[in-house]
Sequence to fold (339 residues):
Amino acid sequence: MNLTRREFTGLAIGAAASGAMGWPAFAQPGRWGTFYDWKPVGEAALAAFGAGGNALLVMSGDEAVLVDCKNIGYGLTLRRESKQVYGATLTAVVNTHHHGDHVGGNHAFTNNLPLIAQRNASERIEAWAVGTIKRIESSGEAMEERMLNQMREQAHGPGGAKTGSGDIAQFFDLLPNMKASEFKPTETFQDEHEIKVGELTVQLRHPGAGHTDNDAIVFIPELNLMHTGDLCFNRLHPFIDMNAGATSAGWMRSCDAMLELCDDETVVIPGHGEVMGKAGITEQRQYFEILRDAMVKAQSDGMERTEAVEMTIPQFDGYGFEQIKPRTYAAVFDEMLAG
Ligand SMILES: [Zn+2]
Fold:
């Protein structure tokens, strides 16, 4: 699907008119027979859904950049399909933060590509990889079977399931010699960084600790396109990683930093959930405003922590990731208590 800017903008405006969080579901089932569901999100830009956080592939000229690497075991598939969908050559890969569902496929790229992340991500990714490799190895064949089944269940199309299963087998062949260092970024930055991909500028900004202490906002001004990493969960309860420096206060500041870069036509890829617009970032900020107020009130009403984490907040009706909710509420309860 080759959308001209005019066609794409037309679709975007149509979507904006269709509802606050609305974004068109570009219909193109199994166009490439891929494992991932690759959806156009701009001119020469595709978001990949499935098997981990949302990834973004952007092409310019014969070069391409990939943002985020999905779950462990799916990296080889991601690398193959990143080439397959556009035929462009990947020249850089970016991680938005250290969590396993965004860096799991890193090993498939670091052998011959620059992989860029915020400085604090490095050590955390390595620690995660040490534990994860050990865990998968010790689970042996049962784990391979489980991952193969998942691959078949999660495949966007039957063609993707078939080639993807081969990738899982190859991953398990590589596993005995796999090193945690293969998952580490090859380049890091502190506050800001910029890379060129063809004619495009890919801006990376670390707004301070929000979802983690190593969040990177990815913004491509020429396409008015943003990948927020997990600084946005679209209508899903967000995971606050307190062990990695996350707070709701910091997260709200990060929302402000993202909002500053956006206008009403910015296409925003959240870490999880459907593609959205600027309004989705505002809604993410409001989530924390509402939750913080609710927890302050709960405390002044003398509510216990165990009770507060089970509270029903009507504004979050219909939000997914229900299993994360008690942890999120607990984190904000503690944060508000600490003042
Ligand atoms: Zn995350």
User: Anything to note?
Assistant: Residues 10 and 205 are 29 Å apart (CA to CA). The radius of gyration is 20 Å.
